[in-house]
Design brief:
Shape of chain A: elongated
Number of helices of chain B: 20
Shape of chain B: globular
CATH architecture of the largest domain in chain A: 2-Layer Sandwich
Oligomer: heterodimer
Distance between the termini of chain B: 58 Å
Distance between the termini of chain A: 15 Å
Largest sheet of chain B: 6 strands, mixed
CATH architecture of one domain in chain B: 3-Layer(aba) Sandwich
Helix content of chain B: 25-40%
CATH class of one domain in chain B: Alpha Beta
Largest sheet of chain A: 9 strands, mixed
Radius of gyration of chain B: 25 Å
Number of strands of chain A: 11
Strand order of the largest sheet of chain B: 2-1-3-4-5-6
Bound molecules: iron/sulfur cluster
Structural class of chain A: alpha+beta
Number of helices of chain A: 5
Order of helices and strands of chain A: EHEEHEHEHEEEEHEE
Largest interface: A-B, 31 and 33 residues
Strand content of chain B: 5-15%
CATH topology of the largest domain in chain A: Alpha-Beta Plaits
Number of domains of chain A: 2
CATH topology of one domain in chain B: Rossmann fold
CATH superfamily of one domain in chain B: Cobalamin-binding domain
Strand content of chain A: 35-45%
CATH class of the largest domain in chain A: Alpha Beta
Radius of gyration of chain A: 19 Å
Number of strands of chain B: 19
């Protein structure tokens, strides 16, 4: 049986990288007594895969992993069992059964959205930013950025890969909302997009000064983006 | 969110920030306002090494079981963070509360190997605690050392207020009660230290005074009035009742030991003459197998680890090994838990178990004959014969293994060229065995025999504590002798030879049997930038050479000199159970190439029966 788990990663856990999160969950499954399936062989491993790895330093309200289980309790009980063994900064928010022919999370991911805000005092003005956004995004046909890979540089047009961009103010802090293409092809990281936006304004986007917070991850169903939390069904 | 001592600007730029944030599974959280004593336990090496250490987990659990004590942890910041902390003057902090180390009542430092000594100075320096104990004032943190190297604490005596000699399970309660009394009654630091020096196992170096003659040999070792002349190493006699952590800490990043460690016994019945652990952990004490089953179950459940390993000096000597191993396999194997079994003698039983728990094609069988010739093995009292090794290897080859690892030491007392060459000959014999046993059509290529040698370092409280060591060039000659001998073997293509560098061996030898004069060398070394000396990428011999010169000492006076049997050794004030008379007897036996029977065959009256437990009293009512 396939299960999709949604979790939050915040606070101190943002310093823990993706591979260590994987190890963390392997041990958590055991501690919580989840009846997870194992592969065969001499060093059996749990059948588990993640939707879209989150970089070190980022927090998230919508992370996903799929597991395969031999048997399971209800969604409610399983969430409780898992949350009882979590550390500060990790919280399980959903546990749903997928149909057997459902593709795994990693292969269906289409986009993810984020809030980005400064960790220090706000220095920028909302009006200026909205003005810049107009010329950079709203009224422009293309957004060219150079993407640096290990071997080469490549110029990319982000326009068709950015599905949403908004800037707003809340309690004296400016928030950038971005919804970006995510997955094995056409993966756009929020820092890439914002670096280009800041450059457009003649500013520098200092990554360590900004908190990037992922809101959710989506798949595409019949031309609409649907949150992965809506896939599968509750187990009563 | 818990406030961290370091900000994102630092944590997101250093390697592995998880080393510095705490928050691990099973971390103990207490309200620091509601405890009487704050203790921080330090392993002076990088987090991944320190977190793998069983002793700290035991003490962490034991101390935190007391409501009035909060025990936290600290490890050596890696060189990247070290630099930042020095530049920006950031004080070293404990992982749990993230509070500065300076705020703690005790800083406990575990001393596992000599090459971590500069890291001790790093921890003191970054914490802002005066490095020399004599410069500390009433309110300063008490620095206490413990662990195997505390059996000769003299080279680092100047940096510590006290040492705890022996197994921590015993005297910490007494120390904590005294600490509370100290706080209530407002004793001065010296009054407190004087009272502490009277707790069994506590050594306060400032009350003991060595003097040296013109050759640097101890001429006198006196002590102040009111402290005992000898400090008795503390040993927990009924290990089954000793506290054991049912909820081990589980780090986020992969530690060296990423598994449940189940200590099945302490000590060893064998008495190899080079082995300090085999002497100082006497008597051999087994844990009740039912207790172990319970411990294993609890620890696997509470940690979620996917592997469990048995810890002991010689697992095959544990009386209920078969029962325990079968229990682990039956209960955990199909739950995806790996079972790892180090230090097993290779025989039909262990091969059968190994074939159940590992992939034969990928794994290897390991032998530690420690010396190549039977003569040399008799000298070191390693009761492993060529016949037994060839038989074990033969069984392994029949079972499908084709990789063999062999461990040896070079630079042993009385060693000759023939003894060294015998290492290669033994490896060749094993290869011959493979080609004789396994028919051509069944071979998966060649057999692979890997020889590793390390250089012998004489340690305190062993029969070899008086022996001389050699120069680095002599050690390299030894390695060359073995290498040439390997190349002269018929099956040389099946044999691979690895050897260690000699510089670290020499330094280790200096500090293992050193005296208090070495404190200055350590200070010089640290101040000139020596740190993480057990790491090849950071070790710098040139700086060490200079550190000795500047202290007007030489490495050679510590390494190349054979101690005379009536000389006062720096660690003579410690009573480790084994008596000097026994060690001297064993030394004579070594030179006579006479094997001493193990504790189960026949008691040799080593002195450890004074601890009233373990093997000395087995089968006796
Ligand atoms: S007293 Fe005898 S039995 Fe006990 S540890 Fe010593 S040699 Fe072994």
């Amino acid at each position: 049986m396939k299960i999709r788990i949604r979790f939050r990663k915040y606070s101190l856990m943002k310093y823990i990288g993706h591979l260590d999160i994987l190890r963390y969950f392997q041990k958590s499954m055991r501690r919580a007594g989840i009846d997870i399936s194992y592969s065969g062989g001499f060093s059996p491993h749990q059948i588990m895969s993640f939707a879209a790895p989150l970089g070190v330093g980022l927090t998230s309200d919508g992370e996903y992993l799929d597991i395969q289980v031999e048997s399971t309790d209800s969604s409610k009980e399983s969430i409780k069992k898992l949350n009882d063994v979590m550390v500060e900064g990790m919280e399980i928010t959903s546990y749903r059964k997928l149909s057997d022919n459902e593709k795994n999370a990693m292969s269906v991911v289409a986009c993810a959205d984020y809030h980005v805000f400064t960790k220090s005092e706000e220095k920028l003005k909302l009006a200026d930013l909205l003005e810049a956004k107009k010329s950079y995004y709203d009224e422009s046909d293309e957004i060219l950025v150079t993407k640096q890979t290990k071997k080469s540089e490549k110029v990319m047009d982000l326009k068709s890969l950015v599905y949403g961009f908004d800037i707003f103010e809340s309690e004296g802090k400016i928030y950038y909302y971005v919804k970006l293409s995510t997955g094995s092809t056409d993966n756009v990281k929020p820092e890439l997009f914002l670096t280009a936006f800041f450059k457009h304004m003649g500013l520098e986007f200092d990554e360590t000064d900004y908190q990037i917070h992922r809101l959710d991850v989506y798949c595409r169903i019949e031309d609409k983006f649907v949150s992965l939390s809506e896939t599968g069904e509750e187990i009563e | 969110m818990k406030k961290l001592a370091l900000g994102d600007d630092i944590l997101l730029t250093v390697d592995k920030p998880a080393r510095y944030i705490g928050n691990e599974i099973n971390m103990v959280v207490k309200d620091k306002e509601h405890v009487a004593i704050r203790f921080v336990m330090c392993f002076p090496d990088v987090y991944e090494i320190g977190m793998s250490h069983l002793g700290i987990q035991i003490l962490y659990d034991m101390m935190n079981k007391r409501e009035d004590v909060y025990c936290e942890r600290v490890y050596s910041p890696w060189t990247d963070l070290h630099k930042i902390m020095k530049e920006r003057n950031i004080p070293l902090f404990a992982l749990e509360s993230q509070d500065p180390i300076k705020d703690f009542d005790f800083l406990g430092i575990t001393l596992q190997y000599e090459m971590c000594y500069t890291n001790i100075l790093q921890v003191l320096d970054l914490s802002g605690i005066p490095m020399l104990a004599k410069d500390r004032k009433d309110h300063d943190t008490i620095v206490i050392g413990g662990g195997p190297c505390a059996t000769n604490p003299e080279p680092i005596a100047d940096f510590f207020d006290m040492f705890y000699i022996g197994e921590g399970e015993i005297s910490y309660d007494a120390l904590f009660e005294l600490t509370k009394e100290w706080k209530e009654k407002g004793y001065s630091r010296d009054e407190f230290l004087m009272k502490a020096a009277n707790i069994p196992g506590i050594y306060v170096p400032k009350f003991y005074h060595p003097s040296y003659d013109e050759n640097g040999i101890i001429s006198e070792f006196t002590h102040d009035e009111g402290v005992p002349a000898t400090v008795k190493r503390q040993v927990y006699s009924n290990l089954s009742e000793a506290p054991y952590p049912s909820k081990p800490l589980v780090p986020f990043i992969k530690a060296t030991q990423d598994r449940v460690v189940l200590e099945i016994q302490r000590g060893c019945i064998r008495g190899c003459r080079f082995c300090q652990a085999g002497m100082i952990y006497r008597p051999n004490r087994e844990k009740d197998v039912e207790v172990l089953k319970k411990n294993a179950y609890e620890m696997l459940m509470s940690s979620g680890h996917e592997e469990i390993t048995l810890s002991s000096l010689s697992s095959s000597d544990y009386s209920h090994l078969e029962e325990l191993v079968n229990f682990l396999i039956d209960n955990f194997k199909d739950k995806g838990v790996n079972i790892s079994l180090p230090s097993l003698r290779i025989d039909a039983f262990s091969l059968d178990v190994m074939s159940k728990v590992q992939d034969i094609k990928k794994s290897s069988v390991t032998f530690a004959p420690e010396a190549g010739s039977q003569r040399m093995r008799n000298v070191i009292n390693k009761g492993l014969t060529e016949e037994v090794i060839l038989k074990g290897a033969g069984l392994a080859f029949e079972g499908g293994w084709n990789k063999v690892k062999l461990y040896f030491m070079l630079g042993l007392p009385t060693e000759t060229k023939e003894d060294m060459e015998a290492i290669a000959v033994l490896a060749n014999e094993i290869a011959k065995e493979y080609y004789a046993i396994v028919p051509k059509e069944k071979r998966q290529g060649k057999c692979q025999i890997t020889i590793s040698t390390s250089f012998f370092v004489p340690k305190p409280f062993t029969p070899f504590q008086w022996e001389k060591m050699y120069t680095p060039s002599h050690y390299l000659d030894c390695a060359k002798t073995v290498n040439d001998a390997v190349n002269a073997q018929l099956n040389k293509k099946s044999i691979k030879y690895n050897w260690h560098h000699a510089d670290v061996t020499v330094l280790e030898g200096v500090f293992a049997r050193g005296d208090r004069r070495l404190s200055q060398v350590l200070l010089n070394a640290y101040n000139s930038g020596c740190l993480f000396d057990s790491w090849t990428e950071t070790f710098d011999m040139q700086k060490w050479v200079k550190a000795f010169e500047d202290a007007n000492l030489t490495m050679e006076e510590y390494t190349l000199r054979e101690r005379s049997e009536d000389e006062i050794l720096p660690w003579d004030f410690i009573d480790c159970g084994v008596t000097k008379a026994f060690l001297l007897r064993e030394r004579k036996n070594a030179y006579a190439e006479t094997v001493t029977p193990n504790c189960r065959q026949q008691c040799s009256g080593c002195g450890s029966a004074s601890y009233k437990g373990g093997v000395c009293f087995e089968n006796k009512n």
